[in-house]
TrEMBL record:
This is Tetratricopeptide repeat protein. SUPFAM superfamilies: TPR-like. It comes from the Bacteria. It comes from Stackebrandtia endophytica. InterPro entries: TPR-like_helical_dom_sf, TPR_rpt.
Length: 166
Protein backbone atom coordinates (compact mmCIF):
# COMPACT_ATOMS: atom_id res chain seq x y z
CA UNK A 1 0.00 0.00 0.00
CA UNK A 2 1.29 3.39 -0.92
CA UNK A 3 0.59 4.91 2.51
CA UNK A 4 3.35 2.87 4.14
CA UNK A 5 5.78 4.04 1.43
CA UNK A 6 5.03 7.66 2.40
CA UNK A 7 6.16 7.30 6.02
CA UNK A 8 9.47 8.24 7.58
CA UNK A 9 10.40 8.95 11.20
CA UNK A 10 11.28 12.10 13.12
CA UNK A 11 13.91 12.47 15.86
CA UNK A 12 11.48 10.98 18.41
CA UNK A 13 10.98 7.98 16.09
CA UNK A 14 7.40 8.96 15.38
CA UNK A 15 5.86 8.42 11.98
CA UNK A 16 5.65 11.48 9.76
CA UNK A 17 4.75 11.75 6.07
CA UNK A 18 7.48 12.19 3.49
CA UNK A 19 4.96 14.07 1.34
CA UNK A 20 2.00 15.60 3.17
CA UNK A 21 -0.14 16.22 0.08
CA UNK A 22 0.38 12.69 -1.23
CA UNK A 23 -0.35 11.24 2.22
CA UNK A 24 -3.54 13.28 2.51
CA UNK A 25 -4.68 12.01 -0.90
CA UNK A 26 -3.92 8.40 0.00
CA UNK A 27 -5.65 8.65 3.38
CA UNK A 28 -8.72 10.12 1.73
CA UNK A 29 -8.74 7.36 -0.89
CA UNK A 30 -8.25 4.53 1.63
CA UNK A 31 -10.75 6.01 4.11
CA UNK A 32 -13.53 5.39 1.62
CA UNK A 33 -12.73 1.68 1.61
CA UNK A 34 -14.43 -0.98 3.61
CA UNK A 35 -11.67 -3.54 4.04
CA UNK A 36 -9.33 -4.10 6.95
CA UNK A 37 -6.29 -3.26 4.81
CA UNK A 38 -7.71 0.02 3.53
CA UNK A 39 -8.96 1.23 6.90
CA UNK A 40 -5.77 0.24 8.71
CA UNK A 41 -3.65 2.01 6.08
CA UNK A 42 -5.82 5.13 6.33
CA UNK A 43 -5.55 4.99 10.11
CA UNK A 44 -1.77 4.71 10.05
CA UNK A 45 -1.60 7.56 7.53
CA UNK A 46 -3.80 9.65 9.80
CA UNK A 47 -1.44 8.98 12.71
CA UNK A 48 1.48 10.17 10.57
CA UNK A 49 -0.48 13.30 9.67
CA UNK A 50 -1.21 14.00 13.34
CA UNK A 51 -4.96 13.46 13.00
CA UNK A 52 -5.34 11.24 16.02
CA UNK A 53 -9.12 11.27 16.44
CA UNK A 54 -9.58 10.28 12.79
CA UNK A 55 -6.84 7.69 13.17
CA UNK A 56 -8.50 6.08 16.17
CA UNK A 57 -11.84 5.97 14.38
CA UNK A 58 -10.35 4.35 11.27
CA UNK A 59 -8.23 1.91 13.26
CA UNK A 60 -11.17 0.87 15.46
CA UNK A 61 -13.18 0.21 12.30
CA UNK A 62 -10.27 -1.85 10.94
CA UNK A 63 -10.09 -3.78 14.22
CA UNK A 64 -13.76 -4.73 13.86
CA UNK A 65 -12.90 -6.22 10.46
CA UNK A 66 -9.73 -8.01 11.57
CA UNK A 67 -10.18 -11.67 10.74
CA UNK A 68 -6.97 -13.03 12.25
CA UNK A 69 -5.16 -12.59 15.55
CA UNK A 70 -2.19 -11.20 13.62
CA UNK A 71 -4.36 -8.40 12.24
CA UNK A 72 -5.86 -7.64 15.65
CA UNK A 73 -2.37 -7.36 17.15
CA UNK A 74 -1.12 -5.13 14.33
CA UNK A 75 -4.05 -2.74 14.57
CA UNK A 76 -3.81 -2.63 18.38
CA UNK A 77 -0.20 -1.51 18.03
CA UNK A 78 -1.25 1.17 15.54
CA UNK A 79 -4.01 2.28 17.94
CA UNK A 80 -1.40 2.46 20.69
CA UNK A 81 0.66 4.81 18.50
CA UNK A 82 -2.38 7.02 17.91
CA UNK A 83 -2.84 7.33 21.67
CA UNK A 84 0.88 7.69 22.43
CA UNK A 85 1.45 10.42 19.86
CA UNK A 86 -1.60 12.23 21.22
CA UNK A 87 -0.22 12.10 24.78
CA UNK A 88 -2.44 9.34 26.22
CA UNK A 89 0.38 7.15 27.44
CA UNK A 90 -1.82 5.13 29.81
CA UNK A 91 -4.08 3.90 27.01
CA UNK A 92 -1.10 3.43 24.71
CA UNK A 93 0.58 1.20 27.29
CA UNK A 94 -2.62 -0.79 27.85
CA UNK A 95 -2.94 -1.44 24.10
CA UNK A 96 0.74 -2.38 23.77
CA UNK A 97 0.50 -4.81 26.68
CA UNK A 98 -2.67 -6.34 25.21
CA UNK A 99 -0.93 -6.75 21.85
CA UNK A 100 2.15 -8.27 23.49
CA UNK A 101 0.07 -10.75 25.53
CA UNK A 102 -1.83 -11.79 22.39
CA UNK A 103 1.42 -12.16 20.45
CA UNK A 104 2.94 -14.31 23.20
CA UNK A 105 -0.09 -16.61 23.21
CA UNK A 106 -1.11 -16.71 19.55
CA UNK A 107 1.37 -14.98 17.22
CA UNK A 108 4.96 -15.40 18.39
CA UNK A 109 6.23 -13.86 15.14
CA UNK A 110 4.80 -10.51 16.33
CA UNK A 111 6.38 -10.47 19.80
CA UNK A 112 9.23 -8.29 18.55
CA UNK A 113 6.79 -5.78 17.01
CA UNK A 114 4.69 -5.54 20.17
CA UNK A 115 7.71 -5.48 22.47
CA UNK A 116 9.32 -2.67 20.48
CA UNK A 117 6.20 -0.52 20.67
CA UNK A 118 5.81 -1.20 24.39
CA UNK A 119 9.45 -0.16 24.81
CA UNK A 120 8.82 3.10 22.95
CA UNK A 121 5.75 3.78 25.09
CA UNK A 122 7.67 3.12 28.30
CA UNK A 123 10.50 5.35 27.05
CA UNK A 124 8.00 8.17 26.53
CA UNK A 125 6.85 7.63 30.12
CA UNK A 126 10.41 7.86 31.43
CA UNK A 127 10.31 4.27 32.64
CA UNK A 128 13.72 3.57 31.20
CA UNK A 129 14.58 0.24 32.87
CA UNK A 130 11.30 -1.33 31.76
CA UNK A 131 11.70 0.20 28.31
CA UNK A 132 15.23 -1.18 28.02
CA UNK A 133 13.96 -4.66 28.91
CA UNK A 134 11.22 -4.53 26.24
CA UNK A 135 13.53 -3.10 23.58
CA UNK A 136 16.26 -5.65 24.34
CA UNK A 137 13.72 -8.43 23.88
CA UNK A 138 12.69 -6.92 20.55
CA UNK A 139 16.33 -6.65 19.47
CA UNK A 140 17.12 -10.24 20.44
CA UNK A 141 14.15 -11.52 18.44
CA UNK A 142 14.93 -9.29 15.48
CA UNK A 143 18.56 -10.39 15.42
CA UNK A 144 17.28 -13.96 15.26
CA UNK A 145 14.99 -13.02 12.36
CA UNK A 146 17.92 -11.41 10.58
CA UNK A 147 15.90 -8.56 9.04
CA UNK A 148 18.30 -5.62 9.00
CA UNK A 149 15.63 -2.92 8.73
CA UNK A 150 13.92 -4.26 11.86
CA UNK A 151 17.24 -4.55 13.69
CA UNK A 152 18.10 -0.97 12.74
CA UNK A 153 14.69 0.25 13.91
CA UNK A 154 15.14 -1.34 17.32
CA UNK A 155 18.70 -0.07 17.64
CA UNK A 156 17.40 3.45 16.91
CA UNK A 157 14.80 3.05 19.68
CA UNK A 158 17.51 1.86 22.09
CA UNK A 159 19.77 4.78 21.09
CA UNK A 160 16.93 7.23 21.77
CA UNK A 161 16.29 5.59 25.14
CA UNK A 162 19.96 5.86 26.07
CA UNK A 163 20.05 9.56 25.08
CA UNK A 164 17.04 10.28 27.26
CA UNK A 165 18.36 8.23 30.19
CA UNK A 166 21.55 10.23 30.69
Amino acid sequence: MRIFDLITYDSELRMIPTDVAAMEAEVKRHSRGDSYQQLRAAGVGSVALGRYDAARDLLNRARELADTQTRVIAVDINLADAHRYDGDLVEAERLCRRALAAARSDSPDLIDFASQHLGKCLTDQGRFDEAREALNEALRLRLAKGEQSLIDSTRSAIDRLEQLDR
